[in-house]
Amino acid sequence: MQTEIALTDNELNTRETVNRAVALLRGGDVVALPTETVYGLAADALNPTAVAKIFEAKERPHFDPLIVHLPNKTMLRDVAEVPAEIAKTVIQLVETFWPGPLTLLLPKKPVIPDLVTAGLPTVAVRQCEHPIFHRILKHFGGPVAAPSANRFGALSPTSAALVFDQLDGRIPLIVDGGACARGLESTIVRILPGTPKPIIEVLRPGPITEDDLKKFGKVVFVKRNEAVESAAPEAPGMLAKHYAPRTPLRLLESPRDFSPDPGKRYALLSYRGEEKDGFLDLHDWAEVAVMSPGSGRVAEAGIRLFHLIGQLDKGGFDEIIAEPVPDRGVGKAILDKLRKASV
Ligand code: TXA
Ligand code: MG
Fold it and tell me: Is residue 232 predicted with pLDDT exceeding 70?
């Protein structure tokens, strides 16, 4: 199969690209689309044959469920139940963060095929903020299932070129909507009733942070349990091993943890490229990539993370050494990705 990249950099080509993408979705095919987080591989969420093509192209195991993306907020009740005891919080979160990088886990309605949710009684839903994605969904008129557009276990792509690297020959079309503004996958939460406040369980940290969520409930980060995962992941989004580049990557807690093997070539993935952080002068690095040069802002580091790991992965190094970032805000999501990428 020939994989084409369709542009959206002026109104004429955008119109044509949107029409092609919608035609593919209507025809039960897959298409890679830009979102504000990472590129997604989309198919008609209500068509199991179309959804099966996502699993096939990604080589994704069927136990790993997909996120359903809605063209508008009102469609939430068509695909998911909103239990009365958490309805107020769900509505507040949707009104505050949609369209945007927040995914909610809710009981699914029967219209969503079991293939989408991997047989789970819940469905993960969000409304994406990217203008091209939004336009395509509005024309299409229904929900699409869309996981990140990478091969299973590999890095999530933050540009059309990175999708092409992974899925060339496996899908008909990649819609190029530019580099992703957030660079990290959506925050996934589950809401539980609680007194005096509802509980917001963060199953996957992401661009919507604890600070953003805490006015709506008590925020709890769910720790991964590898014993449970290796058997049958109850919440497969929490698989411990994920995002692995081909080059081994190791996240260090402190510069003291590094003892290089002579003769090996190491690249450093630095947070802000500052000598005072103790990593830059630690070794004669074969290459240094900086996530947030100068200022050290975690949001910027998040945007550049997957792109830089992807670049370093092409450099033929023996190992990529990653500096830790602050464990706050989007930094929590970055640390989560680096831990999952670590050997
Ligand atoms: O930002 C994003 O969320 C991107 C863009 C494309 O929207 N999508 C994305 O999808 O990251 P994916 O499939 O790569 O990650 C979704 C995660 C998966 O790890 C999956 O296991 C988990 O969400 N998930 C989906 N439905 C679930 C469910 N019903 N229960 C538990 N986990 C679920
Ligand atoms: Mg993914």
Answer: no
